[in-house]
Structures are given as C-alpha cells and as structure tokens.
Amino acid sequence: MYHPFLCPFLGDKSNLGDGKNMTEIRITSRKNPLLQQVKKLLSSKKERDTAGLFVADGTKLLQEAIQYWPGLETVILSDGVEVAVPESVQVVRVPEDVMQSISPMQSPQGALFLCRLPEKTAFTPKPGMLLLDGIQDPGNLGTILRTADALDVPVVLLEGCADPFSHKVVRASMGAVFRVPPVTATWEEVKQACAQQKISVAVTALSEKAKDLRQAEVERMAVVIGSEGQGVRQEILDSADAQLIIPMNPHCESLNAAVAATIVMWQMKK
Fold first, then answer.
1. Cα 234 from Cα 251, distance rounded (Å)
2. For 75-113, how does the pLDDT look when each residue is reduced to its tens digit (9 = 90+)?
3. Rounded CA gap, 5 and 208, in Å?
4. Does residue 6 register a pLDDT over 70?
C-alpha cells in the first residue's frame, strides 16, 4: 500500500511497485529518515497522533497484526528473520545492529512494524462493561485489555489512561488491541449515555459503604476500575450509583489494578 507519509522515508519510490506487489528494500544507515521516525513514534504519543501511525515489535505480534489489523503499513525485519507478509505491505530489511539501535527491546526479536491508528470508535453503553479511570501503567492496561478480550467484556478507557497504542501496552496486551481496538470516552459521555440507557454505574472502592462484589449484579452494570495509586476520581465516586468492594484478608490493603479488573470481569461472566 502506497502511504504518502512513509514513502518519502523509503528512498527511491520505484521500489514501491504498483501497491500490490511491493519489492523488499534494504536500509543500512541508522540515520535513515524512516528509522528516525520509527524511534519518534515509539517514544511520543503526540508523534503517533500527528502521523496517524503506531509501532509494535516482535514476530508474534506481527502475526496478530497480519491476521486482524487492516492498517498494517510497513514491516522492518532483521537479516535472517523471515515472516510471510502480505504483498500489499512494504518490507524493509535492516542489519541486526541497525535493528538493535531502533528496537525498544534489549533483545530484539527482529521485527518492527508500523500500523495506521484506527478511526475513533463511537462509545455505546452496554451492561457488563468495564470502565478504566486513569490506568497509566502500560503493563496493567495491556493485561486488562488481554483479559477483556479473553472473557469478551467490553472496555472503555476514560481520561488519564495510558496510550493503548504505545508499544508497551500493545506488547502487554499480546495483540488484543489488534483483535478488539480500544474505545475511549470521557466520563461525562459515559455518565450521560448510561443514564439514558438506564445502566447503573458502580465503582470499586475501599469504603465502609461499599457492597460485596459477589452480591452485586455486575453483569447488568458498568463498573469503574481506578488506578492503584489514586483510585477512582472523586468526581466519579460522587456521581456513581453504587460502590463495590472485592473481599480480601484484612491485612491486605489493595489489589493490583489488573488483578482487580480481572476479578470484576470474571464476576461479570458468571
């Protein structure tokens, strides 16, 4: 696929073919503009949003993108790494030391790839939905998205969450972002939409008035999970219909956000 943003970085456009049968090209300079742009996309959400592209790494994730993501644009492979890539996707071959210089991993798997960001998906309220408030840790967010994909639970990212298309989140999700693109919305949008659809919103909270999660019909609710450090925002706590608590041993203060989300999602599917 001929991409006007990428083509200036690929050198001679005659290598790009007719958009159906692209030839493999080789880059050996670490200063090549495409490779420099890859580094910027890996490190900056602003760069990703401006370019409309994101970067992921690894052969396993590349296979997921090939199978599920229509916006796969360019694949960068180390010498000796072979992956069956669709003919419509540009393949760039680089030496191992060059891959090492641009890969976000200490031990690169020999594959980086660029994908188009998806169009924003409209938020549709559903019972049995998980809302994430301020989940900033990429590992936690990716794990939650992976679990939600496995349990078929819809997830909405509220304000303050990590970028779901950062390479760390994509990796932690094990490709779930390719199978089920994340949905984002503001709290005001969610609150109004849930009220219109008569879907109760519950928050997880360490509160004396919180109800035992096991006694709540969470499959009929939208449940908010907050960050480990700050919890759910006060604004959401104040306007939620209910508060829920996961029963724990008294000597345990709290759970990891991804673990708490997994327990809530499991309860939703019971």
1. 25
2. 999 999 999 999 999 999 999 999 999 999 989 999 999
3. 55
4. no
What whole-number distance in Å separates Cα of residue 184 and Cα of residue 131? 9
- Helix, strand or coil for residue 165? coil
pTM exceeding the 0.85 threshold for the entire prediction: yes
Q: What 8-state DSSP symbol labels residue 213?
A: G
Question: What's the pLDDT tens digit per position in 173-183?
Answer: 999 999 999 99
3-state DSSP helix/strand/coil % of the chain, to nearest 5: 35, 20, 45
What is the phi/psi pair of residue 142, to 5°?
Answer: -60, -40
| 3-class state of residue 64 by DSSP | helix
Q: Which amino acid is residue 114, in one-letter code?
A: L
Q: Give yes or no for a contact between 169 and 142, defined as CB atoms under 8 angstroms apart.
A: yes
81-90 long-range Cβ contacts below 8 angstroms, 24+ apart: 81/109, 81/110, 81/111, 83/59, 83/111, 87/20, 87/21, 87/22, 88/1, 88/19, 88/20, 88/22, 89/1, 89/22, 90/1, 90/3, 90/6, 90/10, 90/16, 90/22, 90/25
Q: How far apart are CA 86 and CA 106, in angstroms?
A: 28
Name the DSSP class of 180: S
